[in-house]
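Hi R.,

Here's the chain you asked about this morning:
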Amino acid sequence: MSGRPIGEHEHAPAACLPYDPRAPEVARMVTGMIHQQLPHVLVEHVGSTAVPGCAGKGVIDLLIPYREGELEPVKETLQELGFQRQSTRNPFPEDRPMRVGSIRHEGDTFRLHVHVVPASSGEPDELRAFRDRLRADPEMMEAYVRRKRDIIESGTTDAMDYSIVKGSFVRKALDEMRR
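And the predicted structure, written out as tokens:
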């Protein structure tokens, strides 16, 4: 991995960490790296670190909604930058991959997840809608953080299990938004 800007992904147990106001800056920095190689590809900051004040795992989630013919160039570019395939159980399929990595910034390591999602699927719109709802609704954000803390306090430490359990909150919020 030497010489690549993106370092090894550091696995960590599930946690609900305080919001780090440097997250948007790190997201812009990584987005810029991707845009240097693929200027036409949309890269968006999603997830808890994209919501000011929202506690979470501390992982910077980026979304790349890809169009026809873009998947392989995106995956190749992410690999060239140093991103790795998931090494956890149940990785996302390669037609909707997630790449992982880390980057050092201001003396700290920030973990990264890049979700490469078909633009024609509904998933990009759902990720944006949930992020935007949390940004616009402080009560919803507080409820989401409470739910995440409850999951951790119940003893769930596996990151995959944590994501599955908190997914019910996200699905319920999205269902309410559709009504």
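The chain has a mean pLDDT of 94.

Let me know if you need anything else.
M.
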